[in-house]
Amino acid sequence: MRNKTILFILLNLVTIVLMAQSPWEVPADRNAKLSTGAFTEQSQTAGKDLYMTNCKSCHGEPGKNNAIKLVPQPPDPSSTQMQQNSDGALHFKISEGRGPMPSFKNVLSSVDVWNVIAFLRSSNKDYKQQVAVRPTFGGEVFDKVELKLNWEAAKNAVTAQLSGTRGGIVKPMAGLEVKLFAKRYFGNLVVDKPVDTDAEGKASFTFPKNLPGDASGNVVLMAQLSNEELFGLVKTETQMSIGVPTNRPPLNEPRALWNVVQKTPIWLLITYLASVLIVWGFIVYVMLQLRAIFKMGE
Ligand code: HEC
Q: Which ligand 1 atom minimizes the distance to the CA of 107?
């Protein structure tokens, strides 16, 4: 048993050391991948925020060489080891992770990862960004791709309209998958299964009759193009008053259970104080009895 444990630990160590030494292979297509958007001051700022929360704890701050000691060592963002990666390789490594380097593909969207890369590159003076050729759709390059949400009461459906603009002319975009969510306190709720846009660029979602909204029945709906790789993150948010009006007691309501002492429900306060008094009373009683026994002994 003991030998097996030692063998297990040794094997793990060997794997880690081997991984540290083997170069990190990036598939050719991922290596050549480029961001469709140019890195701007805005994307760098967004990327900096993401970096500080998700990466700084291991990689440290750019140029300060204050990364934590791990095997393999997380490189400083401005180091040659980091900067010699192509944009696509950075995107791949951040998304997939390896060994102690976590995978971020379920934490950060593809666009978030590009923003982090924009920030990583901001400390490299020799870096010149190459932007991907604009993706085309049916042979057309659009300046802007947009989603809009409408309510069709007759069909009890929410319709998403997908259109591309080119030189001021708006055209519907057919055959692309759209997802619809309702925003909740914690995360998003899938409203209906993904739908492909039809010839008019429309994707129609059945809206459930019993979806709770706020006190006035308002629901914030969010539609998003499923394929982020094509045009980046295309999404829209619209508030519609189509949910079931629901009165949820706010979490900070006076005298709610989850709250500060001043706001505890009175019955709870009394029960609590009474139990504390009874327990202490009992302890004091026992002590007094003990003292009486001692006195008697003397
Ligand atoms: C838990 C610690 C940890 C966190 C958090 C972390 N990394 Fe890493 N990272 C590492 C380690 C360790 C390596 C080396 C992995 C290897 O070579 O196998 C690494 C490697 C990398 C590489 C590859 C460098 C090279 O050698 O080509 C990149 C790029 C990278 N990290 C970016 C990031 C970004 C961006 C974030 C935040 C979104 C992040 N890391 C968060 C530990 C971490």
A: 38
Looking up tokens 């692309």 gives 176
> Beta-carbon neighbour count of residue 36 at 10 Å?
18
CA distance 79 to 98: 19
Q: Does residue 149 have its Cβ closer than 6 Å to ligand 1?
A: no
Q: What angle do CA 149, 46, 167 make, to 5 degrees?
A: 50
**Position 171, amino acid:** K
The pLDDT of residue 232 = 76
Q: Which atom of ligand 1 is nearest to the CA of 116?
A: 35
Cα 190 to Cα 32, 108, 110, 224: the distances in Å are 34, 19, 20, 11
- As a whole number of angstroms, the distance between CA 298 and CA 73 comes to 72
Task: List the structure tokens of 61.
Answer: 């701050």
pLDDT in tens, 195-222: 999 999 999 999 988 888 988 899 999 9
Output the six-digit token pair for 180: 């619809």
- Candidate from 86, 101, 104 with most ligand 1 atoms within 8 A of CB, to mutate: 101
Alpha-carbon Rg for the chain in angstroms: 30
